[in-house]
Specification:
Helices cover 48% and strands 19% of the residues. With 228 residues, it is α/β, with parallel strands linked by helices. The strands form three sheets. It has a five-stranded parallel β-sheet with strand order 2-8-1-9-10.
Length: 228
């Protein structure tokens, strides 16, 4: 059977990971959540006091990158791979709004991007992979057979993220979540190294008014076109 690479890029909280997991499970492909990798390095920086609201010691973080080991380990009960950093499961910790507040700053660092892009390319060298992030179709896999770019209004994305966080028990406000999303959008699209942008051959999907089921069916049709 033909094997392809599926790159899913887009703004934060557009449901990239949910869609990527669905597609990967349906096809029996490997799913790679690159956002979890950037979040893990962000969490590492926070743990070690390299970043806060009023300072960022990027040089010390860069020199410490060699001490960070990231691995995805599949959880049979959950049905997806969880993020492990230096042999510790950090899947829950990296999903907090506190991490979200700093992750775009961390992702601006060229040395961080270089480390993670190399790992991502290695993970997908044999195809049969679904990878989501900000620069998968433009930098990591510019030759991917299928590229999807996902978007939705900031307010729609903030509401989804707010509901997700409150469901987990986090105490957050909608305004704080919206502010975080708008800030991340600006940083992601304005950074000098691999800014978020739609690849020229990507298919844009605005899912502001799409259900998860409708979205899945739409993208699965695009996948089948590439596999035939």
């Amino acid at each position: 059977m033909k094997k392809i690479t599926i790159a899913i890029d887009g703004f934060s909280s557009t449901g990239k990971s949910t869609l990527a997991k669905q597609i990967a499970k349906h096809l029996g492909y490997v799913y790679v959540d690159t956002g979890a990798m950037y979040r893990s390095i962000t969490y590492f920086a926070m743990q070690n006091g390299y970043i806060d609201h009023d300072f960022f010691d990027s040089e010390t973080l860069i020199s410490s990158l060699k001490n960070i080991n990231l691995q995805f380990q599949f959880n049979d009960e959950m049905g997806f791979a969880e993020m492990f950093m230096n042999n510790s499961n950090v899947e829950t910790e990296i999903r907090s709004l506190k991490v979200s507040n700093f992750v775009s700053q961390i992702a601006e660092i060229s040395e961080v991007r270089a480390k993670l892009v190399d790992q991502q390319k290695e993970m997908g060298k044999n195809k049969s992979v679904v990878m989501d992030g900000r620069d998968i179709g433009t930098v990591v896999f510019p030759d991917a057979e299928l590229k999807i770019f996902m978007t939705a209004s900031p307010e729609t994305r903030a509401q989804r993220r707010f509901e997700e966080l409150t469901h987990k028990g986090d105490v957050v406000t909608f305004d704080a979540v919206l502010e975080n999303i708008q800030k991340r959008d600006y940083i992601d699209t304005h950074r000098s190294d691999s800014p978020l942008k739609m690849a020229s051959d990507a298919i844009e999907i605005d899912n502001s008014y799409l259900t998860k089921e409708d979205q899945f069916k739409l993208v699965l049709e695009l996948v089948q076109e590439q596999l035939n």
